[in-house]
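Researcher: I need the complex structure. Ligand is gamma-amino-butanoic acid. Inputs:
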Amino acid sequence: MRLNLLFLSIAVAVGLAVAVFGPPHMSNPLLTKDDNVLHIAGIFPIGGKGGWQGGQACQPAARLALEDVNNRTDLLPGFILKLHWNDSECEPGLGASVMYNLLYNKPQKLMLLAGCSTVCTTVAEAAKMWNLVVLCYGASSPALSDRNRFPTLFRTHPSATVHNPTRIKLMEKFGWSRVAILQQAEEVFISTVEDLEARCKEAGIEIVTRQSFLSDPTDAVRNLRRQDARVIVGLFYVVAARRVLCEVYKHKLYGKSYVWFFIGWYEDDWFEQNLEKEKINCTREQMRIAAEGHLTTEALMWNQNNQRTLSGMTSDDFRIRLNEALKKENYDIDNMRYPEGYQEAPLAYDAVWAVALAFNKTMEKLDRVGKSLKNFTYTDKETADDIYSAINSTQFLGVSGHVAFSSQGDRIALTQIEQMIDGKYVLLGYYDTQSDNLTWNNKEKWIGGKVPQDRTIVRTVLRTVSLGLFISMGTVSVVGILWAIALIVFNILHRHRKVIETSHPVCNTIMLVGVCLCLGSVFLLGLDGRFVESESYPAVCQARAWILTLGFTLGYGAMFSKVWRVHRLTTKSKQDGKVKKVEPWKLYWMVGGFLIVDIILMLCWQIIDPLQRSIEIFPLEDPSSTDDDIKIRPELEHCESHHNNVWLGILCGYKGLILIFGLFLAYETRSIKVKQINDSRYVGMAIYNVVVLCLITAPVIMVIASQQDASFAFEALAIIFCCFLSMALVFVPKIAEIIQHPRDKVEAKYNTDAGVSKEDEDRYHSLLAENDELQKLISAKEEKIRILKIKLQERESMKSSGTDGTAPSAAEGMNEPICLGAGGVRNNLIPARTYHGNAAGAQPEPAGLILPDPFTTNSDSAIGPISGYTRSSQSDFEFSESYL
Ligand code: ABU
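Model: Output:
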């Protein structure tokens, strides 16, 4: 059934082929007597547009062989060999058509010669039906080594798999362990690649990609580039090879970074031929550039030793004869323009000799049983088996080397390695697969002067904080820490001075310890892979988190507790109407409370989900200072835990609340000066500063986290700025006060926080003088009033004495309450004049003026003594210029 279908499908092709090519050519038209002629069929690929058109040289070579065989009297005595052939164009359909034409047309053929893998595959698969032995002179497909599928096939052409051990050997020699494959979608190449893959796997060579194409290699070549393929094994026929090479040029897959392995049986100038005819879109020069440096592997097809062969010729003799024959067919051999198949011509020549020898042997055997080869028919399995056995055992020294067939019908051969150097193939060496012997001439030449790499070398570069930045920030931090330590000493030494004592020196010391820790954390923030091993990095992460958190809590917490107490004092006093005393332990408790919360949170974080070293990988970059094929992969270390956002959210949320609340308290108490905490206004300013910087820095750092220098600089500067400003705001006035007023008495007269100046002092004295004047005036007025009252009483008593004649005593009048309204004052209880802070030149308010309650009124609008407090210099709260 299968055979019938095959016949049917090919019958059309047969007719077509005959119509196109006419009857099969006769190799020797002089031979007319048919009785002593042994006919063989030949299929030669010659005029096709793709594939291997090796018949161009192989057919003349076979013709030479026929001449030589037929001239030998000791071979096929009494018989001559006659070849009937036609062109298959390396097309399997046409090849089958040619085969049927040859087989079904008289005379009876005894054997079939064929070339080109695709055609051989077709004819060898069908030939067994006619009990015909097929001898392929030009078929490299490894698939043909399948004895079940091709039971009657022999070939003088080595299998393409002989290249693979050679390729592997070269890859190992040059240290390439990552290769790519580009193949034409033909069985010959598919089966070669399968064999290559298996061998690569065995040798530990990675096949990074395998691209195939039917006729247009554009996409496949582009994919090779995408995959960063550097060592590429290309398997395709020569027409496709030209297209590939043009794409290689266009996609810049040539030069010092790339190595191509091509098949070695293309002609020497294959990349320059037929460019216009095949519409190749590259110039000769471009093709030459792209082809430079490629390697080829090929089985040896010419006898290397130049020994005299069975035919009596050396391979050089054969070359001369073949060249002559080709010249007669108008090939420009003198200018080294060889036809396709020139390399394989010895194989075709030796194939004919192998046939002759096999027939000779078979004839001898048949003679012994009274049979003749002449009587062979397609159903004569017995004779076919004899022919098979004869060719299977045939061995001789041919022009292609030692001809022998393996059990799979394969030719055993050496391989040669060549490289295109300056547009010419240079022989690099030979490889004998059997003995694993590589003979190397050391003639290889690489474009970049060194062996290309099989991949882009990716160098991992850890991005670290620049040393200059780290040192400068570290230096400033050290200065800050020293300054903080000096302030601690100053604070302790002067703890009994009023200015320090009323600012709660222990709180100040706590704040300064916090400052030291925060400044110390600047060093830890800059400690990265430059200084620390990756194994130690998690410890640095933990230390950063702990030190910054505790430092912040101590520094900010101490300041927060002060404004908190001021706020409590003012609100409580207002409610109670009593002066409250500040108890220091309450301040310490607040800081301690914050610390406890911090420690609990940090412990939970560290125990449940500790901070680890994580790596952020950046896109590959080109190195700036090397010609090597290197890419840089920048990496950046981060401290992260699995649920980093959750932990940061909790910690930042808690700290954020304290910050915002501190901001609120600082705002609320901005105009209040409390004797018990004399520096609360400056502390409030420091809190403003810390809050603003924290609120800006935290989100910015998250955004620029991938820029190590920027984020370190931003973070370090924020810490440094907060610490320095806080220290300056809290301590500079104290230092100035102690320097200006070395004695406690003078100093006690002024609140350091008020920042009393000479002008203020003068104004104070003038106000005191004015107050005295007014007191005198009031005394005079009161005296006048008293007299008037006495007079009034006298007048009233006179009026009443008009009735009883008695007058009330002055003492009686004196016992009456003196009522001058709400603004009334006693002459010895004059309120100190206050003035509006924003308008230093504003007129003093008259004494006795009713003033609004300062706790509920903005300091800008309400300034004055508080009911229950006598002189400003003795009051517990003062309201002065707002620092907002
Ligand atoms: N050396 C030519 C091989 C041709 C082919 O296998 O088709």
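Model: Summary of the prediction. The longest helix spans residues 758-801.
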